[in-house]
Amino acid sequence: MNSFVYENATKIYFGRGGVREHLAEAVQAFGKTVMLAYGGGSIKKNGIYGEVTEALKAAGKEIVEFSGIMPNPTYRKVLEGKKMVQENGVDFILGVGGGSVMDCCKAISMAAATDKDVWKEYWIERGNVDFEPVPVGVVVTVVGTGSEVNGEGVITNEEEKIKTSRNYPRCNPRFAILDPEYTYSVPPLQTAAGGFDMLSHVMETYFSAPDGDNLSDAISEAIMRSIIDNLPLAIEEPENYEARSNLMWASSMAEIGIIKLGKRCDFEAHMIEHQMGAYTDCNHGMGLAVIHPAYYRRICKDGLAKFVKFAKNVWGIPGEGMSDIQLAYAGIGFFPKLVDLIIILI
Amino acid sequence: MNSFVYENATKIYFGRGGVREHLAEAVQAFGKTVMLAYGGGSIKKNGIYGEVTEALKAAGKEIVEFSGIMPNPTYRKVLEGKKMVQENGVDFILGVGGGSVMDCCKAISMAAATDKDVWKEYWIERGNVDFEPVPVGVVVTVVGTGSEVNGEGVITNEEEKIKTSRNYPRCNPRFAILDPEYTYSVPPLQTAAGGFDMLSHVMETYFSAPDGDNLSDAISEAIMRSIIDNLPLAIEEPENYEARSNLMWASSMAEIGIIKLGKRCDFEAHMIEHQMGAYTDCNHGMGLAVIHPAYYRRICKDGLAKFVKFAKNVWGIPGEGMSDIQLAYAGIGFFPKLVDLIIILI
Predict the structure, then answer these.
(1) What is the rounded average pLDDT of the residues A78-86?
(2) pTM over 0.90
(3) Do the Cβ atoms of A137 and A92 come closer than 8 Å?
(4) Which residues on chain A are in Cβ contact (under 8 Å) with B6?
(5) Are the beta carbons of B6 and A14 separated by less than 8 Å?
(6) Percent of chain A at pLDDT above 70?
(7) Structural domains of chain A sorted by starting position, each given as residue range(s) with its CATH number in brackets
(8) Per residue, what are the HEC states of chain B?
């Protein structure tokens, strides 16, 4: 096993009623003014907004609202958030939403705590973050990116046509509230896109060096099987708690860092998708669902043994009477079949 | 998946040369006086003591030594450590050793920061730790307990004949340095005992409720297979880095909390072993190796489906033509076979 350094400071509250039970307590340690950040307003329709504001008020907080965070959040939006934090003396940022909201909040938390141009200094130049960002907490309502348990933030600079991600441990949310019931109202297509995103995170890790038999790969296989089993279930029965909770935890497990330990993790398909996203604003998970099979058919000959293992251990293809290359293609081919299945379901 | 709250504050440095590369930096944040705690002195024979003291001196620390921590560390030893910390104004406790050293250090870190009788107040009465223990860091030289990544401490009160464990997150080591090469000199029997201990941690978790198909059980299966594959290898070739590193990480993974999330974890075999240990001072891992098969043969009829899954997924028994109970017994029976194999090897 290769060397690594691991730390993860995020406290996770997982389960039904997480906001009602834990939010007031979780924000206690931070200052009085909370910026409540969210997306297009779906949280006002499904009751989440009401539960969150009630808990914040119970904790004696003053709320400043920052809404309209878009999918593929832009640097322009980050600067808008920075202004709001600075003008209102915000002590704590609470992001309520999916990956876009969480990533935008992390970038704002950095931008608001420095005079520097964070896009240039940290997203492009990868500078050393030698200051403390404004603390962030998150309430997850859409799963897939796993952003709730790491310091990653994917930001798009529209002018420069660059969408890119950086991971600064200081940006790890101080806490993440994961209530699977909060994802019941996520529509089928978005559920599927989130599912592909998390599957992609695990595949990118699994197919990166080293390939030696190790615990990381075995855990990755378990996570992939769990996603494959639970994704169609969650689409067919949106209020299936088992399926929603398994997906929610698989999403976090894919990105909490554990499976990446000792692996190179070049995230090649993500790199391709990010550029596609910068130019087309396409949905991230859907972009990945297109890229992975095409890319893997192209590269599988150079890592045949691993693709054979993937076909057998993840997709359960017995492989009798098949050559290695047939088996590798069969494994990769199951991925589009999952897409087909989901298209039928939705 | 059941609800849970998860946090883990320990920073892990994993890999070759960890002490030389990271120790001086890791202790930087803490005060000047470090209590270096260890066991019977094997670290003076294998060079670890020299590397550790050199790094501490390079970091400008003053060292106070506390040696002779025994297997099954006693409350009397904890009180001895408390005295040393208080009399020397110790700012930081560095434990160098295996589970006994780490557990003893955690109990000392609590005892030295309060006037209370910590055995009575926290190990027996399970009081709320409302004070900050003296910070602890660890350098692991023997694997098995997983104590390096949690707040657990197993302490024995010889007078009361009670050996028992408590887990206080405030006792999590601030950092853990895991260098697989530091375990090269662990003798075969102790390597085997550590292997059984970690296998036991995973089995206790795996066989506890809920039994529903979930990510925790799949990850547990992966960890158990890794231990079963690597333990005989590490005994046969003590300097096999792959085997030693896989075992080292499996030990931490078993106890870092991830597989326990949403599971009940009653740790029944451990409860039995602890009492055996309190009366006989037997080796913990060896005690578990005796208890598990006997206990599981007794209870397996009441959880047959899970024992069948264990036989198939962990031990790889195909099970054709076998009844469920035969299969369950075959799975449990592989455990003593692993013991036999290890007896032959050592």
Answers:
(1) 98
(2) yes
(3) yes
(4) 11-12, 14
(5) yes
(6) 99
(7) 11-181 (3.40.50.1970), 187-345 (1.20.1090.10)
(8) CCCEEEEEEEEEEECCCHHHHHHHHHHCCCCCEEEEECCCCHHHHCCHHHHHHHHHHHCCCEEEEECCCCCCCEHHHHHHHHHHHHHHCCCEEEEEECHHHHHHHHHHHHHCCCCCCHHHHHHHCCCCCCCCCCCEEEEECCCCCCHHHCCEEEEEECCCCEEEEEECHHHCCCEEEECHHHHCCCCHHHHHHHHHHHHHHHHHHHCCCCCCCCHHHHHHHHHHHHHHHHHHHHHHCCCCHHHHHHHHHHHHHHHCCHHHCCCCCCCHHHHHHHHHHHHHCCCHHHHHHHHHHHHHHHHHHHHHHHHHHHHHHCCCCCCCCCCHHHHHHHHHHHHHHHHHHHHHHC
Whether the CB of A249 is below 8 Å from some CB of chain B: the reply is yes
| Nearest residue, CB atoms, A1 vs list B4, B213, B246 | B246
- pLDDT tens figures, B171-211: 999 999 999 999 999 999 999 999 999 999 999 999 999 88
How far B8 CA lies from chain A's nearest CA (Å)?
7
Cβ contact (<8 Å) for B249 and A261?
yes
Tell me how far apart the alpha carbons of residues B191 and A180 are, in angstroms, rounded to a whole number: 41
Asked if A213 is an interface residue toward chain B (Cβ–Cβ < 8 A), one would say: yes
Chain A residue numbers with beta carbons less than 8 Å from the beta carbon of B12 are 4-7
Measure the CA–CA gap between B275 and A33, rounded to whole angstroms.
52
Contact between A85 and A134 (Cβ < 8 Å): yes
Tokens of A143: 């799963």
**Distance between CA A340 and CA A319 in Å, rounded?**
22
Q: What is the ipTM of this complex?
A: 0.89
pLDDT of residue B79: 98
- Going by C-alpha positions, the residue among B199, B209, B202, B204 that lies closest to residue B264 is B209
Size of interface A-B (CB pairs under 8 A): 101
pLDDT digits (tens, 9 = 90+) for A300-337: 999 999 999 999 999 999 989 999 999 999 999 887 77
Question: How do residues A254-298 score in pLDDT, each as one tens digit?
Answer: 999 999 998 988 899 999 999 998 899 899 999 999 999 999 999
